[in-house]
Records
---
Amino acid sequence: MENKIGKLRHLISINDLNLQTINDIINTAISFKESPPKKLLKNKIISTIFFENSTRTLSSFEIAIKRLGGEVVRLEVMSSSTKKGETIADTAANIDAMKPNAIVIRHKGAGAGNYLAKFVHCPIINGGDGAHAHPTQSLLDAMTLKLHFGEIEGLKIAIVGDITNSRVANSNAILFDRLGAEVTLVSPPHFQNPLIRRFRNTTDLRDVLDEISCIISLRTQTERHSRGHYGDLRDYASRYCITKELIGERNIVVMHPGPVHRNIDIDDYMLEDKKSLVLEQVQNGVFLRMAVLSKFHN
Ligand code: NCD
């Protein structure tokens, strides 16, 4: 959602951003990586509310805020009033009443960010809502691709894994497509997602291995499955794990939003290989979130 002076009102999904703003955020993040910006969040307080577990996204936002000179107030969800039966709308409205400059939120419910935006005055930044969207992850992935390849347009990218339940798959497919890349979704049939059938898809990674230059591997989101698809994730891995043998001499970079199921999503060898951009994604994530935080109007 953008207002008329091009500043962001909220960031809930990639669909909130026009192409110019997407490129502006990515380029700003790259410039922040090249030379640290001024303390753009001096005297600002940002609240982080994460109802779902997180290692990278929460730390990345909090480090980004502090690098910009802002302060963080983290709501410790496990000891918050949500545990006493307060609704998330009331929790958000109460935090908002204390006048933070923005709220970064993660929740298991798809649409939580949009819903909460109705109850607050400050910007809401979505740190991941259910299987719906994870806009800053996809922007940092695009930044990483741009830094590695110079251009995203024309890149052939395979997104591999639990497409149905992955907000990263949703956001990435939409963003990379808008940036002119060719996206193929690779997953077993039970992990296909009707919402994004508009993308080329296959059940066999070998179908596209000779054309792609990037694989985005995803974690199997067992916490979102209503029934067990695999007794043992090694059955999934036997077809979808990104291994040394599978990649061979091909010039393909391997990415993953984390957390990685080692030797299920990507094998030890490929994770340590220079073709893995996994930790570079994490490093870029801080600059990307600094760029996003610099685009809000208050
Ligand atoms: C992902 C998430 O939480 O959506 N990780 C992340 O934010 N870096 C992916 C996942 O949980 O598998």
---
Amino acid sequence: MIAVLLGAPGSGKGTQAMRLSSRLGLAHVATGDMLRRAVADGTELGRKAKAIMESGGLVSDDVVLGLIRERTSEKDCASGFLLDGFPRTVGQAEGLDRMLSDRRLAVDVAVNLEVNEDRVVERMLKRAQIEGRADDSPETIRQRIRVYREKTAPLAAWYAGRGLLSNIDGEGSIEAVGERIEESLRDRGVWAPVEAR
Ligand code: B4P
């Protein structure tokens, strides 16, 4: 199974992806985590990505697609993977489709977490106090939300047009949101938890 998790910054993608990937036995592929690791390691990619991430912008489609191509070729992705924070632009979604069709694969479902903007700001400001992430400052959060509206939000319609979109109410407890995702994947016939195999 190949699943995509969509949603605004702070909508709970990373949080739900961790839960879902362990229940479904899928590799968790998070471009934000991969980029933060590159920054921490001081690689060439990390040096380029640092300023872009700290300003709330998006790293270029080519760079992110290259990362995904490499990462999803690893062994743990052979029986499926969950993409968290990717794609973030229509260009990335098109690139992903091309890459998968070359491998005779396709996205099975795109889960879109819907959360009120005031709530995502609240969550990220809270995370800033706990984790101190460089891009969780009030100004950068505003920019990330602007970029989300312009570049990423159109992906919901893109996946809906392909019959792959599951819209999920992302408000409430982490467990409640997780249960809604599970129910929606069950309805689509793509819920195959590890314990049932
Ligand atoms: P990401 O790491 O994807 O950051 P994010 O959008 O904030 O999502 P994240 O997964 O961390 O937060 P979550 O919603 O789970 O990207 C960071 C940056 O990397 C981007 O701005 C961009 O520059 C770059 N980048 C990444 N991917 C890229 C791509 N494909 N193309 C180009 N550039 C890319 O959680 C937020 C907080 O809410 C957490 O503290 C969590 O504990 C809390 N939370 C979650 N669910 C909750 C709930 N139900 N109730 C209360 N709190 C909850």
